[in-house]
From TrEMBL:
Coiled coil: none annotated. Residues 334-428 form the M23ase beta-sheet core domain. Keywords: Signal. This is M23 family metallopeptidase. GO terms for molecular function: metalloendopeptidase activity. Transmembrane segments: none annotated. InterPro entries: Cell_wall_metabolism_enzyme, Dup_hybrid_motif, M23ase_b-sheet_dom. The keyword Cell inner membrane does not apply.
Amino acid sequence: MRKRKSKFSLVTSLLFAAIIGGALYVYSSTMFERDVPRISMQNNGYWNLKNPLEVLIEDTSGLKSYKIILKNGNDETTLEHEQFLVFKESAKAKIEVPRSVYNMKEKEISILVEATDTSKWNFLSGNSTVTEYKLKIDKRKPKLNIVAHSYKIKKGGAALVIFNAADENLKDIYIQTNFGKKFKAQPFYKDGYYISLLAWPVNQRNFKATIIVNDFADNESKNYIPLYLKNNKYKLSNIELSEKFLNGKIAELAAEFAETQGVTDKIEQFKIINEDIRAKNENLIHDITSKVSDSMISDFKIKEMYPLKNAAIVAHFGDHRYYSYKGKQVSEAYHLGLDMASNAMAKIIPQNSGEVIYADYNGLYGNMPIISHGLGLYTLYGHCSSLNVNSGDSVKGGSHLANTGKSGYAMGDHLHFGVVIQGVEVRPAEWMDTTWMKLNISNVIKSAKEIIDRG
């Protein structure tokens, strides 16, 4: 009798242990994982029904099946349904709508994504999940019309455009150029209207600008700005580097910059200064001057620019300089400002008011204040001996900004005067010409206002 009880107890214990072991195996085995498939779809809540939506479905145990359903009102349309015969950790699906559904009138729809994995959980039926995405339907392109623009643009010069853009789901407005630069437009005069200065870089052979407006549903409108292009020839200078220059100014600058520490070769010093340090200094300028306000402006009035009284022009904008040493070309650079000289340490007096956004030392440019005049227009004053302003100051036209000097990469006392539009250097000569400013700026604004008021 005791042997029977002992045998029964052993069998019970073994059975209980087997049940516990089986339960632990089921609980810990990847075959019985309990995580539902992960579903993701990149969207911003809008859809134009034209551009496919991408759905990603993932599961570590493998996918058994998925289904994508479009729900509009009381109607449901299966857009995609797939069952997998082999193990698959993930699946990507492109959601496209059939023509019969494209013409639906609903403004909102839902996308239902159902997925089931190959897990043995849930009595071998696997883990299932359903994710719903609610989307607003917008199939209409944004409104876009050019109101007024400058007649022409010169290589190295500027132009102005004013246009109307509107959409109930407006996302982005910018002006795309053929050389990769995007110009930002600022709200102008009345709701739905925008204004922007444009710039043709001196080192670009051609110029094309297209206004692009898109909405959150990825509908897009484009309008090419029909500017007459006029090539402008700039000086080519072949400069032979002298020993005096290399042992003097270049050696002086090489001792100053971290990039030339430990470099003993004179030509290598010059190349680093003329190329690497110049690029670094210009990148700072471009970054500072690329900003445009989002605030609406009703007008843009600017006076002719001539910051140095009784000055002589000693170097022109756009001069393409090739540097040689012992007859061999070693480097090149563009001169992106207008060099003006009068008396030593002469007063620099801008004619236009603005905000000082930078007033510090900038490598080859030396002591350099930059003034923002609005609409993405900036003026720059290089090689100053002293500054009378600090960053953040507001300055009035006619005030004493700084004094000329020879700080930075300057051989003699002068002012390097630069005009920059949204990070692109342009010809200062245009902004010194009242006739040019009237034809290309003030008359365009006046004409646009008259058209807008009539509309």
